[in-house]
Amino acid sequence: MTPIFTGSNISELDKYTIKNEPIDGTDLVERAASTFVNIFKRKYNKQTKIYVFAGSGNNGADALAIARMLLNDGYIVESYLFNPSNKLSIECEEHKTRLMHCPINRFTMITSTFNPPIIEDNSIIIDGIFGTGLNRQVEGGFAALIKFINSVSATVIAIDIPSGLFSESNMNNNPDTIVKANYTYTFEFPKLAFFFRENEKFIGKWKILPIGLSEKGKREIKTEYFLVEDKDMSAISTERSKFSHKGTFGHSLIIAGSKGMMGAACLSAKAAIKTGLGKLTLHVPSCGYTIAQTVVPEAMCQVDTDELFNTEINLDKDYTTIGVGPGLGNYPEGARMLETLFEKYRKPMVIDADALNIIANNRDLLRKIPKDSILTPHPGELERLTTFSTNSEEQIIQAQNLAYKYNIYVILKGAYSATCMPSGHVTFNSTGNPGMATGGSGDVLFGMLVGLLSCGYNPSTAAIMANYIHGLAGDIYVAKESEESLSASDIIDHIGLAFRQLRD
Ligand SMILES: NC(=O)C1=CN([C@@H]2O[C@H](COP(=O)(O)OP(=O)(O)OC[C@H]3O[C@@H](n4cnc5c(N)ncnc54)[C@H](O)[C@@H]3O)[C@@H](O)[C@H]2O)[C@@H](O)CC1
Ligand SMILES: Nc1ncnc2c1ncn2[C@@H]1O[C@H](COP(=O)(O)OP(=O)(O)O)[C@@H](O)[C@H]1O
Ligand SMILES: [K+]
């Protein structure tokens, strides 16, 4: 998994690489800049007018090196180095000198007043004012510069991170003094701030540029946060033995549905089956019997004595895992049913949707949840389980605390669904698309989690894989059709291709 390091971790790793590779700091900047330029040249032709804004640290050094490389490649570049305190980092000084040696060169160093140039709409701004070394909110002349950049219509490309944005927490930052980039090309690993929805307007679309920082250093420097990518899947998805039989992949139980919400039960059951489980029993209220048997013929049906809601726990088998929640409704007997379930069944289970709402109204139930169970709240459900917050940084912290306190896995769903582990670690999912913001897609994720636990994956692996494959199935569908037309059933229909893609 790709680690997501803090700003101070990154500078530590930078030093580690310089010392142990070994490589000179100036050459490391050169390497970063040339990686950026290679990508840039594939996208923009030499007629594009480029404005480079550089600061006094190594983000500025990157910017000046990029300016020089683009000039040497025949691009039209105008560069500005902002140096109000007359102090440049060693690397920035060196790359300034190198840039000044370029023959055709429009370079200005600003030490006091800055008269902004007129920037044409179809030009490009390369933002290298501040990188991960930002150590306080931006004010004064730099704030004015950032407001100027945000006021023009040119395409803005940020080097490493938009200037003014902190790598981790921006809860106390001033949004008016952060560059709004269209694209961010970030070195080696994404920054934590990229995963918070409030920052999308600053970061734009982002891409990781590997610059060969020390692999040993990465292993030695500890972080709680990781990004899950394609390469991680091949390591964790296991192949089926030739002699497998349906018992190999478990017999699991899903308790879901109520009158008017049988769709949630059926979607989750279908998703569980498509994810490979051996046998499934679906527990539904009696009004749902015909529906379940017709829509999901592969599942056995256990019928509650209540017509409208699920009220009973019937552990007639030693189920491999149990999933509870989708479409249960919020009803008086719900809390008692969950309490009985948590008392009778002590293996990790999957808890979603209305089961989370019932727990939120009966918080004593939290400590009764079997250890290592997986809870899958969206931000609204998390808020009910914890306290009100609309800030996504705070929400992650709340999900982490919940996971740690109750020894459970909490998947906070969203664009980069975050799996918060009892250990304190958090993994962000990289697949999926806005088409998945549609009713029922959460029920599908729930079913996939039941499926993977049933197949014998441990909860941590099941959580990482389910999110990844769920998002990938949505991406495969969108590649053929469109985000608008994506339905929860389309995700189910593409689980098969998603598994196949992992193995290719
Ligand atoms: N570790 C890596 O991955 C690499 C990092 N490089 C670049 O180096 C950058 C980090 O460089 P630095 O650590 O020099 O930091 P920055 O270039 O982000 O800037 C730090 C400078 O800005 C000043 N500063 C910070 N906040 C300010 C504020 N609000 N107002 C005014 N001045 C402020 C600091 O005092 C310092 O002088 C990265 O973002 C990246 O672009 C690359 O060159 C090479 C490899
Ligand atoms: N913009 C998005 N990008 C990627 N995945 C998304 C996006 N929006 C929603 N999803 C995914 O779709 C699912 C939605 O779940 P949920 O909100 O519980 O839906 P529902 O309750 O309708 O089933 C989650 O797995 C979430 O990660
Ligand atoms: K920047």
From TrEMBL:
It comes from Falsiporphyromonas endometrii. This is Bifunctional NAD(P)H-hydrate repair enzyme. Homotetramer. HAMAP family: NADHX_dehydratase, NADHX_epimerase. Its EC number is 4.2.1.136, 5.1.99.6. Catalyzes the dehydration of the S-form of NAD(P)HX at the expense of ADP, which is converted to AMP. Together with NAD(P)HX epimerase, which catalyzes the epimerization of the S- and R-forms, the enzyme allows the repair of both epimers of NAD(P)HX, a damaged form of NAD(P)H that is a result of enzymatic or heat-dependent hydration. Bifunctional enzyme that catalyzes the epimerization of the S- and R-forms of NAD(P)HX and the dehydration of the S-form of NAD(P)HX at the expense of ADP, which is converted to AMP. This allows the repair of both epimers of NAD(P)HX, a damaged form of NAD(P)H that is a result of enzymatic or heat-dependent hydration. It catalyses: (6S)-NADHX + ADP = AMP + phosphate + NADH + H(+); (6R)-NADPHX = (6S)-NADPHX; (6R)-NADHX = (6S)-NADHX; (6S)-NADPHX + ADP = AMP + phosphate + NADPH + H(+). In the C-terminal section; belongs to the NnrD/CARKD family. In the N-terminal section; belongs to the NnrE/AIBP family. Residues 10-219 form the YjeF N-terminal domain. The gene is nnrD. The lineage of its organism: Bacteria, Pseudomonadati, Bacteroidota, Bacteroidia, Bacteroidales. AMP binds at residues 413-417, 442.
